[in-house]
Amino acid sequence: MRKDKAVWEHQRTYEQSKRQYLGEDVLKDTGSAVVWWLAKNDEHVEKTVADLGLLAQLTSAANDSDIPERLQELLSPSRPDEPDGLDGPVSSGAFAGSPGRRSAADHLSDLFDAMGFPEEDPRRATLAAQFAHIIKEQNRYETAEEVLRRFAPPEPEDDAA
Predict the structure, then answer these.
(1) Are the CB atoms for 128 and 110 separated by under 8 Å?
(2) How many degrees, rounded to 5, is the angle at CA 74 between CA 72 and CA 75?
(3) pLDDT of residue 96
(4) What single-letter DSSP state applies at residue 67?
(5) In Å, how far are 57, 76, 83 from 80, measured between CA atoms?
(6) Which regions in the chain score pLDDT beneath 50?
(7) Checking CA distances to 132, which of 4, 76, 126, 139 falls within 20 to 30 Å?
(8) Contact present, 72 and 98 (Cβ < 8 Å)
């Protein structure tokens, strides 16, 4: 029984060490994941480049965070047989270079349109700020910042000049 316990403790320690290594080193961010993958598979550079979107998704999932906006275009578009959650054609607000992918701010804009709030309506900025606050509470900071940037009221012009 002591031997079984020692083996179990060894396996547990090994698993904890592996999780710590993967979480704190390998999957810390997409760049770290790419470097780690290339170190193990240096003969597969082209495949690694093709899988950058997958690595970005993996690191985002490992860190429970949004995929950085600069990496969004690397995500593979939805296959035609997979629903993308949209009821109609993709609007011009889709991510550039990523057909079928729409940001949270795009969907929020659709909501405001459906509510009858035109682009210049100040309620859009007020509601967007409230949504951003809720989104931040869910630890989706990049998404919240995108919403704030998209719906921020225009800067007042300085008339003193």
Answers:
(1) no
(2) 75
(3) 38
(4) P
(5) 20, 12, 7
(6) 78-99
(7) 76
(8) yes
Q: Rounded to whole angstroms, how far apart are CA atoms 152 and 131? A: 12
Which two three-digit tokens encode residue 79?
């296959």
Distances (CA, A) of 81 to 3, 77, 78, 84, 99: 53, 11, 8, 9, 15
Distance of alpha carbon 73 from alpha carbon 101, whole angstroms: 9
End-to-end Cα, the chain, rounded Å: 83
3-state helix, strand and coil shares in percent for the chain, rounded to the nearest 5: 60, 0, 40
Place of tokens 């007020």: 126
Answering whether pTM is above 0.85, one says no
Token pair, residue 12, equals 């547990």
- Please state, in angstroms and rounded to a whole number, the distance separating the CA atoms of residues 144 and 129: 9
Tokens 């709030």 sit at which residue?
117
Half-sphere exposure of 87 (CA within 13 A, CB side): 2
Q: Distance between CA atoms of 27 and 13, rounded to whole angstroms?
A: 20
| pLDDT value of position 66 | 87
pLDDT value of residue 101: 67
Structure tokens at 85: 């959650």
